[in-house]
Amino acid sequence: MTCMLAAGGLFVTSCEDIEPIHELDLARVLSPTGLNVTISAKVNIEISWEALDEKAESYVLEVYKGETATEEALHTRAENLTTTSYRLENMGYEETYLIRVKAVGQDMEDSKWTEVITKTDSEQIFSTVQSEDINGNSVTLRWPAGEAADQITITPVGAEDAEVTITLTPDDVANGYVTVSGLEYETDYTAVMTLGDKTRGTITFKTGIDLSKAQPLNADLTEEEIEAFFANAANGSVISLVPGASGTNTFPTLEISLTKSCKIIGLSDQPVTCGFSFKVEGASDVTLQDLTFDGGTDSKTLVSYVTTVEGGNLTISNCSISGYKKILDENNAEEMAARTLTIENNMITGSLERTIDFQKKKINFATVNISKNTFYNITGKDLFRFDYVAGRKDAVYTIENNTFYNVATTDKGILYIRSNSSSTIEFTCNVNKNIFAYSEPNADVHFSEDSKTNGVTFADNYYYNGGALLENAEGDTSGKVFDTGTSLDNMPFADAENADFSVTDQTLIDAQVGDPRWLQ
């Protein structure tokens, strides 16, 4: 029947019978659909589209610099394409392009153009900011000597109105570095280098602790003197571990009681190694930063909670840790609610029984951030174990941008985090942008083999020899947690056997996956 649309959008069914249409006869080829553009290595453009019409014999691709298709702006024209993908290389940084494609058929008009506008990424010539280049109120930023730039703008994260602009001199450019002073202590900054209207580099960093307030603890002291030093330290103290006057740069293996909040730090120009283990016995906020820990015997815990103040925080940042049984656990702790556990920018290795072990169900951190770490050559029962705590409702766990290499677990798994006995999910756990790699195919290691580990969300993780982390094992699969992430065909690291985890896979570099220190 024929139906007419009357004013106001109402159908009027004054209808007549007509012949139904069984075939659509078009005078032109249908336009390609699903035109997709991906930027790789910042300046390469990967183009793909869907072959919608079987009558299409070939395709024409045109690329224009800018946002309009003019003869003067034409950059590339490719005809007689019989595939549905095309790659353009070295297209420049921060350049905008109009990309369009059409289908060509025999004895038919070409399809209409399908088009998209894209922009290549900004350049990145900044070197990673090393700990020795960061002080409490200054930073040295480095890039390849001689690479031209006009200025660097440094902005505190979340305080854009407080940005500082540094005009670079010819000497700065020739040297490839500049030191910026007058920054705030313990503050996150973003630095952007520009040349004219082009960005040449973007990097983030955090300034250090105010060392003028630090109390030095030197390695010449006896065990009794070290214990007394911590016992007598004021609440909120900053304690810097430094070599002794005799040149000794190794502290004795010693258990330290922390009864008051403190920050224990190392100095990049005065490196030391210590085998301390800490018992939190009343301290609220504890920070371990820029230190090398070597437990030596694999029988100690780096930080063990006994009692603490409600709402305390623990931060372990930019440390090298080996030779411990555990990094963190509860030791007959009273039930308490803490605020934030932060483990970031660390290198952690060894025969750890458990890296984090909260199986006594006492301490609940409202926020857990495990990010930008490298965990390698670890053998033990579990990696992260968080048993159910009654007060954990609404807790948020984030495991992001870490590199895991040869991390084996023989008991509960890499991530054993449980809901309550009714399997009610009362927490959020996000596992994002990590690399899990093994030297040999991994068939036995799971994230968790407990049915109550049921609140985990995975996104953008990559695996090499991932085995059971990616696929449910045959047979009984109840309770096994696994990801549907992306498998890699080749080992993604430069020399993993010698702890060089520099990423060699361009896909991972583009996606900024894994510990950022290895992505340069």
What does this entry look like structurally?
The protein is mainly beta. It has 3 domains: 33-119, Immunoglobulins (Immunoglobulin-like); 131-206, Immunoglobulin-like (Sandwich), CATH 2.60.40.10; 211-518, Pectate Lyase C-like (3 Solenoid), CATH 2.160.20. Helices cover 4% and strands 45% of the residues. Strand 40 (493-495) and strand 41 form a beta hairpin. Residues 1-23 have low confidence and may be disordered.
Question: Could you give a quick summary of the protein structure above?
Answer:
It is built from three helices and 41 strands.
Task: Detail the topology: elements first, then pairings.
Elements: E1 4-5, E2 11-12, E3 33-40, E4 44-50, E5 56-65, E6 74-81, E7 85-88, E8 96-105, E9 114-119, E10 138-142, E11 151-156, E12 164-167, H1 170-175, E13 177-181, E14 188-195, E15 198-206, E16 214-218, H2 223-232, E17 237-242, E18 255-258, E19 262-266, E20 273-274, E21 277-281, E22 285-289, E23 292-294, E24 301-307, E25 313-317, E26 320-322, E27 326-330, E28 336-344, E29 347-350, E30 354-358, E31 363-371, E32 374-386, E33 395-400, E34 403-417, E35 427-432, E36 435-437, E37 456-459, E38 462-464, E39 486-487, E40 493-495, E41 500-503, H3 506-511
Parallel strand pairs: 16-17, 17-19, 18-21, 19-22, 20-23, 21-24, 22-25, 23-26, 24-27, 25-28, 26-29, 27-30, 28-31, 29-32, 30-32, 31-33, 32-34, 33-35, 34-36, 35-37, 36-38, 38-39
Antiparallel strand pairs: 1-2, 3-4, 4-7, 5-6, 5-8, 8-9, 10-13, 11-12, 11-14, 14-15, 40-41
